[in-house]
Design goal:
Blueprint lengths: L8 E4 L5 H11 L3 H10 L4 H5 L1 H14 L2 E6 L5 E8 L3 H5 L8 H8 L9 E9 L3 H14 L5 E6 L5 H7 L1 H4 L5 E2 L24 E6 H4 L4 E4 L5 H11 L2 H6 L3 H7 L5 E8 L2 E9 L4 H7 L11 H15 L9 H10 L3 H7 L8 E2 H9 L5 H6 L3 H12 L11 E2 L1 H12 L3 H13 L1 H15 L2 H9 L2 H12 L5 H8 L9 H14 L17 H9 L25 E9 L11 H7 L5 E7 L12 E2 L10 E7 L8 E4 L5 H7 L5 H17 L5 E8 L2 E9 L5 H8 L21 E9 L7 H12 L3 E7 L12 E3 L30 H13 L6 E7 H4 L4 E3 L3 E4 L3 H11 L4 E3 L2 E4 L23 H6 L2 H4 L1 E3 L3 E5 L4 E4 L4 E3 L2 E4 L4 E2 L7 E2 L11 E2 L3 E3 L5 H4 L5 H8 L5 E4 L3 H12 L7 E5 L20 H13 ...
Parallel strand pairs: 4-5, 13-14, 20-21, 24-26, 25-27, 25-32, 27-28, 32-49, 34-35, 36-46, 37-38, 37-46, 38-39, 48-50
Antiparallel strand pairs: 1-2, 2-3, 3-4, 5-7, 6-7, 8-9, 9-10, 10-13, 11-12, 14-16, 15-16, 17-18, 18-19, 19-20, 21-23, 22-23, 29-30, 30-31, 33-47, 40-41, 41-45, 42-43, 44-45, 51-52, 52-55, 53-54, 54-55
Length: about 1500
């Protein structure tokens, strides 16, 4: 048996492949001669290629800056091939000022106009093992994935020896795909040209491989019934559901049913049908226009029809009673909607079979029509009788006693219905062709009607009087019947009676002529004006109001400019050639310009759809599918990018017409400036041309040399690019360009990336960037770009500490700042600008070769928690995916929407307002200010509070937990619009979790004014959470007097009781003591140890008082009155306690004293629990809820389409089987980190590149697609299908932060490490585990209170801060988890009294490196370095074996370990530290590095 051919897999190259590629190079090019040949072939420096380090940099640079780089792996994942493709020959980049225009040289030399920069790429490098199938797979994959690519070219420079060529061209000689092009001229390029000939005059050569040499086009033909057997096998291979549902012979039936509207095409290979595409032109454009944004595509109508529809819509919206129909059009619709035969059969008949006119009139009078038609035809029955007469105009009109033959009625209606627009124009044209005869007969008819006396008088008068007599004759009325009779053939006229009947109907019903009776008269011109009007008339259109659901419902079939693909199935081996169907499909509908496809949201993306554009849905979309669209012109290839020229300027105006006036003026002035300055201008203007028309505009700016450094300083640009390979004086045709303006015709939107690539190629740039001002209109091009996260300054305080006024160095006269120092100051200022509203987006040339894969699954995120926001941010950061249907339910909007309000509640500090704004969620996610109140699992939609239904494919429940104080009383917060069943709202009772609380307590609002001015109005804040203390400060900031505010503190709750404890401070906390001292100084009352039991309302249903239970151990006051054993409120005549003081109120149900506290406003902020609506949605749908929503290790609930994450959720307890102490609740983890882990889990289902096979459209678990099988952990899998090993759970590391503004205008932050076990937090620490400094003066807010705790291994476990200065929370984050030894011997120096203030100590410039955003990467690198050393690992393991885990590491043991470390390891760590500081000098400028001591030393 023959050995099976090896299979290869082609993927995009990665920088991690470079080591393997380098080894492949060393095996292929062993001697210096071969290396020199390689250098000449690739225009590289010979010396660099001989050195492994520089050679590695050469390959990295190629991968980073080329258009496309691929790596080939064999079945064992070994790299066996490497190839680079670019849009220019590599030699162009090696010759200075050579530019990028290779086309002019190519066409002059080879004269192949079909080869151009839109459909061709050049091999820049190719290395592979000696196996022919490797190159074949590269070619097949490249052509398959880039449908517009037609040619691959190889440039062989002149002077390459035959021996060297045998090695260099070996990859291109395995297959017969590559052919050497024959020059069309003998002329050679001069010396110095990038394509110059060799010294002996030998020109360079070009090898070319065309698509048809690699992929043979499919044969497309009309389907035949005989194709059934072949096609059935193709269908069954992909899904057995189709035949089981529609029958075994449905394909044959489908093919046999073809007609003018419905067609079927077959793809054929070697006489065998391998695919079927079914098409139809019966498309309901009205439904599509209601559900999708089709206006840029003329709502799929032909342009002339859409022009009229737009004019009608404009007139209607302006209040005009416009219509696009004549009376005849309405009459035809009315007759078309009638069953005339049945109506005539119902009319009583005489013995001779005739029917009476009266009976017919009565029957017609009973007919009813649609509103619009009925209004237009008020007297339908009269019009019908008139029509019968017009058909037989030589007969008298029907009267009461007239009888008529039934066939006359039907013939009349048939004739009238035949009068379409073409027939009417034909009739009018025939009449005008014989108009000379008509005029003559009109003249003779008038003369015949004149008396003899008038004729004698006419003969006797002179010319002038004759003319006057003629005018009088023309004005003489002539009956229409007389005139038409004179035109008939019976009277020797030019027309038949049948033609004249049709002419009469046309004139009466479609013009302003009145021929309603035999007495109607002929106008002076004999109906000529009306006939000309018919000739120029347009078809009647029944268009409803633009906002009506039936807006385009009655458009005629021939007005539609679209056909639809309603089925397409292709053998898996030919999937990438599905586009071969499209040209034949358009040829079947030569008068249609659009083709559309709709498919379910969760259907995988197919190669066919890569050529289509996704049409965005309308906000009110109810269509359950995604809509794809392609225009006929888009099949001819992408538009061509060329430089803007003066003669093209007039065509720019319509292209930019959609912009506002200011933007249009800016674009035009920039274009004029470019034309005036030429190529030397910093501006570069390009247009996209298609069929000699401008369809797009690209405006670029070449930035100054310092701009890229500014971007690197302010954004994480280095996380996305190897910037040094794009910038520098040593590189040609590389660098950054700023995208100023971009616009393209929607028909060619699919080619956006190719157009950007064309502009970058011409101007010689490899990176485009856009700095978007978020306060202005944002261009939709940003969806094709990659958003770059902003960087934070490496500092602890938000406001930098000013140097002292009296100091030895500060008073020295400063030097004149240099230009570089000025730029650096601007960069640092921009980095620290808290009000920055710009966002950076980039795209590198290498990314443009990879079209973003659309993900159309409808993902609905419930709750704008840190977890929900992080989940969305993580999805949107995937560079190769484009999410088209993300929805966030965010009651009250996002946090930064409330920045105009004064501070009121606490925050998690996971996202700053500035960072959240610059994520640009609102531009990429549909954010709804709405609440979910129920889930419909069967229909896969969530019910919103207003009753609307929001469909989903994946539902993410990330609401978190809410304040539960009011919910325990069955009360909903005052500002919550939806009131859950069994709950009520109380005027004045609100929760800190209420999204509307900022609006209810707005500064200067009714409630706040009442608290300030009404002596009887008090506000009670109830709860121990951080929110409660922040609300106190919020009220104080709103000028509410302290004595009008009361703080009620319940008894501290243990976790696991009624709610989940969220106490701001632990018992005995110094921060709590300070805050309470401030409150006491202000005169703000604090009642401690009272639990809220109920609420009293006044006669106006407003909050009157709170019923509190005294849990401080007091005695029950004597009952005021008891009736029948039931406790009553105090008698009305008893004196009431003053407002703001406690009043005895008997005993509580638990037998404890009960108090009454009168107030107008109550704000609760205590222990948290699940929101009632969320609980009803979850529990009512059978999702497991056991104190928390239970999820598996992939965050999936028992419903495979519903995921949960955040503080509301908990991992299943089965994951504790092997580790009983494993912490499972998500509230112990950082919400931002949980959201990122959730996104990673869901991407397994959504990412066809890096996800599971089901994400790529594969069949699950060996089953056939559609057979209902689901993979383990797939969309249909549940918790029960998963393993219970705790190793499956994701690991969490990020600390948890919370903060807020507390009374005294003090900023409070608490950052603690994430929880790893169920053991309660230990608040009793050893002396060496707590480091506390307190310089805070609460009277003026100066100084700081700071407390650091260390775990048993000497790592920072938590940080607590209270002070008047605002700190950078992210910087505090970076300290948690670090060993205390990183903090410059903090403990020892604090113990010795050298550090009175931790904050000031960490603000010193030495600590800047700790707060840098790349410090953790440095620590990780050190850790890996230590783990790679066996000696170091042995030292550490021996030390750990001797310690007690409970006691942890002592400082003495750590010192011993440090002393035992090998000197080489210590030196390596020191070198890494110096490298870290040197690489980040744009932020860390205060460190004086060793290489700076010696000017001659290098960095």
């Amino acid at each position: 048996m023959a050995a099976q051919d090896p299979s290869f897999f082609v993927r995009r190259a990665d920088p991690d492949d470079i080591d393997t590629i380098n080894a492949m190079f060393e095996r292929t090019f062993e001697d210096e001669q071969a290396i020199e040949a390689f250098a000449q072939f690739h225009a590289a420096d010979r010396g660099n290629l001989k050195q492994p380090l520089f050679r590695q940099k050469f390959f990295v640079s190629l991968v980073e800056t080329c258009f496309m780089s691929v790596t080939v792996e064999d079945e064992e994942s070994n790299i066996v091939g490497f190839s680079l493709l670019d849009d220019t020959p590599l030699q162009l980049n090696a010759v200075e000022n050579a530019g990028t225009d290779w086309e002019s040289w190519f066409q002059e030399t080879y004269n192949l106009p079909e080869v151009d920069n839109t459909n061709s790429l050049w091999f820049s490098c190719c290395l592979m093992e000696p196996e022919s199938a490797i190159m074949a797979e590269i070619l097949r994959t490249t052509f398959s994935t880039m449908h517009e690519l037609q040619h691959l070219l190889v440039f062989v420079p002149a002077g390459v020896t035959e021996e060297a060529a045998s090695v260099l061209l070996q990859p291109f000689s395995f297959e017969a795909h590559f052919q050497q092009l024959e020059p069309a001229t003998d002329e050679v390029q001069p010396v110095g040209h990038w394509a110059a000939a060799s010294a002996d005059g030998t020109p360079p050569i070009v090898l070319m491989c065309s698509r048809e040499n690699v992929i043979v086009p499919l044969g497309i033909r009309i389907a035949r019934v005989e194709d059934h057997d072949n096609l059935a096998a193709v269908f069954d291979a992909q899904s057995e559901v189709v035949t089981s549902v529609y029958g075994d012979f449905f394909i044959a039936e489908l093919i046999e049913a073809q007609n003018e509207e419905n067609r079927a095409l077959v793809a054929e290979v070697d006489g065998r049908a391998v695919g079927l595409m079914c098409l139809t032109s019966d498309v309901d454009i009205n439904v599509l226009a209601q559900c999708f944004q089709l206006d840029p595509y003329d709502n799929l109508l032909k342009p002339d029809y859409m022009r009229r529809v737009r004019e009608h819509a404009s007139a209607v919206l302006q209040g005009s009673d416009a219509t696009l129909c004549s009376q005849g059009d309405f009459m035809q619709v009315a007759l078309g909607s009638m069953d005339l035969e049945s109506l005539l059969d119902s009319v009583p008949k005489h013995e001779d079979g005739r029917i009476g006119a009266v009976q017919l009139h009565g029957a017609l009078q009973m007919q009813e029509f649609a509103d619009e038609v009925g209004e237009a035809l008020q007297d339908f029955e009269k019009g019908m009788m008139m029509l019968i007469w017009q058909m037989n105009f030589l007969e008298p009109m029907l009267e009461g006693g007239s009888l008529i033959v039934q066939s006359k009625v039907t013939d009349c209606v048939q004739t009238f219905m035949m009068l379409d627009i073409n027939m009417r124009k034909q009739i009018a044209g025939q009449a005008l062709e014989k108009w000379s005869e008509v005029e003559e007969l009109l003249k003779l008819t008038r003369e015949a009607l004149q008396g003899p006396e008038e004729e004698d008088k006419k003969e006797e008068e002179d010319v002038e009087s004759a003319m006057g007599s003629s005018a009088a004759a023309e004005s003489m009325p002539i009956e229409t019947v007389v005139f038409f009779k004179a035109l008939s053939e019976e009277e020797k006229g030019p027309f038949s009676q049948d033609f004249l009947a049709k002419l009469m109907m046309t004139l009466h019903w479609w013009t302003d002529a009145d021929i309603s009776s035999p007495l109607a008269t002929v106008p002076d011109d004999g109906f000529k004006a009306q006939l000309e009007k018919v000739i120029s008339s347009e078809e009647g259109l029944f268009v409803s109001h633009p906002h009506s659901p039936a807006w385009l419902a009655n458009m005629p079939q021939h007005s539609k400019d679209v056909f639809c693909v309603n089925m397409c199935c292709l053998d898996q081996a030919y999937q990438t050639q599905a586009l071969d169907f499209l040209l034949p499909a358009f040829s079947l509908y030569p008068h249609k310009d659009y083709c559309i496809i709709t498919q379910p949201h969760t259907a995988p993306n197919t190669p066919l759809l890569n050529a289509f554009t996704i049409v965005p849905p309308q906000p009110q979309n109810t269509f359950g599918h995604v809509m794809y669209l392609i225009h006929r012109a888009a099949l001819l290839g992408p538009p061509k990018i060329v430089r803007l020229k003066p003669h093209l300027m007039p065509q720019v105006d319509p292209v930019v017409a959609s912009f506002d006036v200011k933007t249009q003026q800016d674009i035009k002035s920039s274009c004029k400036r470019y034309l005036a300055e030429g190529k030397s201008s910093e501006l570069q203007a390009f247009v996209a041309e298609f069929d000699e028309q401008v369809v797009g505009l690209v405006l670029l700016q070449m930035p100054a040399s310092d701009v890229v450094e500014r971007l690197r300083c302010c954004y994480h640009l280095d996380d996305y690019l190897l910037v040094d390979h794009h910038e520098g004086s040593h590189v040609n045709n590389k660098g950054h360009a700023r995208l100023l303006h971009w616009v393209v015709n929607p028909l060619f939107q699919k080619y956006t990336r190719r157009l950007l690539q064309g502009a970058m190629r011409i101007c010689g740039r490899t990176v485009l960037f856009v700095e978007t001002e978020l306060k202005e209109t944002v261009s939709p091009i940003f969806r094709e770009l990659l958003q770059v996260a902003p960087r934070r300054p490496p500092q602890l305080k938000k406001i930098l500490r000013q140097p002292p006024k009296v100091a030895s160095f500060c008073n020295i006269e400063q030097e004149v700042p240099t230009e570089e120092s000025i730029r650096e100051e601007e960069r640092q200022k921009l980095l620290r600008d808290a009000n920055q509203t710009q966002a950076l987006s980039i795209v590198a040339k290498k990314l443009l070769s990879e079209t973003k894969i659309p993900v159309n699954a409808r993902i609905v995120v419930v709750g704008a928690s840190d977890c929900g926001l992080s989940f969305l941010e993580s999805l949107l950061s995937i560079p190769h995916l484009l999410f088209n249907s993300l929805t966030l339910l965010a009651p009250g909007g996002l946090e930064y929407h409330h920045t105009h309000h004064l501070p009121l509640v606490a925050g998690t500090a996971a996202y700053s307002h500035q960072e959240l704004r610059r994520i640009m969620l609102e531009l990429r996610v549909r954010i709804l200010d709405s609440r979910m109140v129920q889930i419909d699992r069967e229909q896969k939609c969530c019910i919103l509070h207003d009753g609307s239904m929001l469909p989903y494919d994946y539902l993410i429940v990330a609401t978190g937990l809410q304040d539960d104080a009011l919910h325990s009383l069955r009360i909903r917060s005052w500002g919550v619009e939806h009131v859950t069943d069994g709950y009520r709202r109380v005027n004045g009772a609100m929760s800190a979790a209420d999204p509307s609380i900022r609006d209810l307590l707005v500064e200067g609002g009714t409630l706040v004014k009442s608290l300030i001015w009404n002596p009887l109005s008090y506000a009670v804040v109830y709860g121990r959470s951080l929110h409660a203390y922040c609300v106190l400060q919020g009220l104080l900031l709103r000028k509410v007097p302290p004595h009008k505010i009361i703080l009620v503190l319940p008894k501290r709750l243990e976790e696991g009781k009624q709610g989940f404890s969220v106490d701001a401070f632990y018992e005995g906390d110094a921060v709590e003591e300070k805050i309470h001292g401030i409150l006491k100084t202000m005169g703000l009352k604090v009642y401690e140890g009272y639990r809220l039991l109920g609420i009293q309302q006044d006669t106006r249903e407003r909050l009157k008082a709170l019923i509190l239970e005294d849990q401080n151990g007091g005695e029950v006051a004597p009952a005021a009155a008891e009736v029948g054993g039931e406790q009553r409120s105090p008698r009305l005549e008893q004196p009431k306690a003053p407002m703001g003081t406690m009043e005895d109120f008997g005993a509580s149900p638990g037998g404890l004293p009960q108090k009454l506290l009168a107030c107008r406003i109550c704000i609760t902020a205590d222990a948290v629990n699940v929101d009632p609506d969320i609980f009803n949605s979850v529990h009512g749908n059978g999702l497991v809820y056991d104190g928390r929503l239970i999820v598996d290790h992939n965050f999936k609930t028992t419903d495979g389409g519903i995921y949960g994450a955040g503080s509301l959720c908990e991992f299943s307890r089965r994951f504790q089987r092997k580790n009983a102490s494993r912490y499972l609740r998500h509230d112990g983890f950082n919400g931002r980190e949980v959201g990122a882990k959730l996104a990673s889990a869901l991407l397994r289902m959504l990412d066809p590149v890096n996800g599971d096979m089901i994400a790529a459209g594969g069949n699950p678990k060996g089953g056939k697609a559609g057979d209902g099988a689901a993979p383990s952990g797939g969309a249909e899998g549940g918790i029960d299908a998963e393993e219970s090993s705790p190793d499956l759970l994701p690991d969490f590391y990020m600390p948890i932060a919370k903060g807020g503004l507390l009374p005294g205008n003090l900023h409070y932050y608490r950052i603690n490490s994430c929880r790893r076990s169920d053991q309660a937090e230990n608040t009793e620490l050893k002396p060496e585990q707590a480091i506390v400094t307190d310089t805070l003066d609460t009277t003026n807010g100066t100084g700081h209170f700071c407390r650091l705790t260390l775990d048993a291994f000497g790592k920072v476990d938590s940080i607590t801060y209270l002070g008047g200065e605002e700190l950078q929370v992210e910087s505090l984050w970076s300290l948690v988890g670090l060993s205390e030894t990183f903090l410059n011997h903090l403990y020892v120096r604090w113990r010795d009294g050298d550090i009175p203030d931790i904050v000031e100590f960490l603000t010193d410039e030495w600590a800047a490196a700790l707060f840098h955003d790349r410090f953790m990467d440095f620590c990780h690198q050190i850790k890996l370095e230590m783990l790679s050393s066996e000696e170091v690992k042995q030292i550490i393991n021996n030390s750990l074996d001797s310690i007690n885990p409970r006691e942890g590491l002592s400082r003495k043991l750590l010192a011993q370990i440090r002393n035992q470390l090998p000197k080489d390891s210590v030196k390596a760590m020191q070198d890494h530290l110096l490298d870290y500081l040197a690489e980040n000098t744009n932020h860390l400028k205060t460190y004086f590095l060793p290489w700076q001591w010696d000017a001659s030393a290098t960095k």
